[in-house]
Amino acid sequence: MVTVFVLTRYAFADLFKARFFIVLLVFSLVPILFFAGYIFIANNKTVQLLMQVRSADLFSVEAQYFVIIMTVQTQAAFLLNCWVGPVLIAGDLTNGALPLFLSRPFSRADYVLGKFTVLGLLLSGVTWVPGLLLFSLQAGLARNGWIWSHLWMVVPIVLCSAIWILMLSLLSLAVSAWVNCELSPQG
User: Fold this and answer.
1) Considering only CA atoms, which of 173, 42, 64 is closest in space to residue 120?
2) How far apart, in whole angstroms, are the C-alpha atoms of residue 137 and residue 78?
3) Are 124 and 87 in contact (CB under 8 A)?
4) Tens of pLDDT along 24-63?
5) Contacts of 5 (CB under 8 A, 6+ apart)
6) CA contacts within 13 A on the Cβ side of 118
7) What is the 8-class DSSP label of residue 184?
8) Cα–Cα distance between 164 and 184 in angstroms, integer?
9) Among candidates 170, 153, 171, which has minimal Cα distance to 69?
10) CB of 73 within 8 A of CB of 25?
11) pLDDT at 134 over 60
12) What DSSP character marks residue 17?
């Protein structure tokens, strides 16, 4: 099991060497700041008065708001996955490193799990983790027992994100290996 984390660590090291990856990661997290600002404004009557907001319902944080958050963040995760996913396995296949990896104490399952862990951790940091942080921010700022009437939303945030991460990761790893096999001279 420790060998899985070796692959994950080196894959992350390679990813963070690319400036485009870092820019893409930062841009995928920028909407979280806007969502957090909206939550702050929705729960702060003083700011609403300064903005001269007449309608109290203009800023409302309910279940539909978290659907919008998750929609934006899953699309950001998709774009991030499109950049990261193909590089993970294709680089090893192109450079002939896969036989070298598998001749070590790595099994095929360890190899795939190590690459999958990279995508899982990366996409988790863009989907369900910010979603729960924003939920916690709203729960901390809201009044009148908001958290108890909306606690059910934690499960859909985590479950939908987990399904999205699993689908994107498996699809990305499969396409990465398939495209490289189709393009190789042997295959």
Assistant:
1) 173
2) 25
3) no
4) 999 999 999 999 999 999 888 888 888 887 766 677 888 9
5) 114, 117
6) 28
7) S
8) 30
9) 153
10) no
11) yes
12) T
Q: Number of helices and strands (H, E) in the chain? A: 9, 0
Of 11, 19, 18, nearest to 89 by C-alpha is: 11
- DSSP reduced 3-state for 53: coil
Task: Kindly state the average pLDDT of the residues 110-130.
Answer: 93
Cα–Cα distance, 56 to 33 (Å, whole number): 22
What's the distance, CA 151 to chain centroid?
22
| Proportion of the chain above pLDDT 70, given as a percent | 93
Torsion sign over Cα 31, 37, 40, 44? negative
Torsion (CA) 136, 141, 142, 146 in degrees, nearest 10: 20
Token pair for 110: 């360890």
Q: Band the pLDDT of 158: cuts 50, 70, 90.
A: very high
Decide: residue 26, CB within 10 A, 0-12 exposed, 13-18 middle, 19+ buried.
Answer: exposed
